[in-house]
Every structure is written in C-alpha cells, then in structure tokens.
Design brief:
The protein is mainly β. The protein has no helices and eight strands.
C-alpha cells in the first residue's frame, strides 16, 4: 500500500483488501501498524461476528495516514492466521526533487584567504514544491 502526494497535517485514507486465497476457511487476525503515523479506521470481515473467512472472501481494512513532515514513512500491517503471519508493507513517500544544476560551476579565480560568491540558477523539475 502506497501513499503519495501528501501534506503535513493532512489525513489520508486508503482501503486494503486481504483475500483468503486458499481452498479452506481461515480465521484471521489483523495486527495494527506500529508507528503513530498509520492506523486503522475500520476493519470489516465477511462475517460480522467472527474473523473467519471462506475461500475467496476478503477483509476490508481502511488505513489512515497522518504525516507530521514531508519525509518518507514505512510500516507494516500484519495478518495472522493458522498458515502463518503475512506482513503487508505500508509506504508513504513523495517524489524527490530533481534539480537542474549546471554540470560546470565556474566562479573564477580567488586569492588564498579571500572569499568570492556567485549565484547559479537552478530549477526543481521533480517533486512538488511544499507550500
């Protein structure tokens, strides 16, 4: 599951479906993410009373993401059943900036112990600029 294009302080939700791909009914438990940035808002099993899933049925999980920075985030949702544990990666990232920096930066001559400055024009051609 991947979250893209988010802002600090925003609340984002996506739906994750975990399907029983075996030929027998399975009891399933779903462990929440470990970090504070990801959480569940809803878990719906095919059966309203138990976590049993018949073959082909899916549990619907709504995952909420609340970033506190524009950084990258990673966590897991873990499904636990008789056959073992299955982690599902949750990943939030923004496209990185892609700066157009000239390949040669010529500032001219400078004497030892002296200082010189020069400005170069660069443009961000990649990810969105934060607001």
């Amino acid at each position: 599951m991947e979250f893209l294009d988010y802002k600090v302080g925003g609340v984002y939700e996506k739906t994750l479906y975990l399907r029983n791909a075996t030929a027998v009914a399975r009891g399933i438990s779903i462990l929440p993410p470990a970090t504070q940035f990801f959480s569940f808002t809803e878990i719906k099993y095919p059966s309203d009373t138990t976590g049993q899933m018949a073959p082909g049925m899916a549990a619907k999980i709504t995952v909420r993401f609340t970033p506190d920075s524009l950084g990258n985030y990673e966590d897991n949702v873990t499904a636990v059943c008789e056959a073992g544990t299955f982690p599902v990666k949750i990943w939030a990232h923004r496209p990185p900036p892609k700066l157009s920096i000239p390949t040669t930066l010529n500032v001219g001559a400078c004497l030892v112990g002296d200082a010189k400055s020069k400005s170069f024009c660069c443009r961000n051609l990649g990810g969105k600029v934060s607001e």
